[in-house]
Amino acid sequence: MATPNYSYEKRQRELAKKRKKEDKLKRKTTDDRPAGIEPAEGESAEPSLPPVGGAGPAGGGAG
Description:
Blueprint (H helix, E strand, L loop, with lengths): L5 H26 L32
């Protein structure tokens, strides 16, 4: 039987740990976006919904 390659296994663990750390940092920076900055194209901070009740405040409406 061949002997285990501990160096290879250690390197794989280190790479996985590094990848996980980078993903976490990336997730953290995208989640903690300042309020004044618009989301990147393709992303949306909140879903845009049409106003409820027809005409908005500037619409005049019934009155």
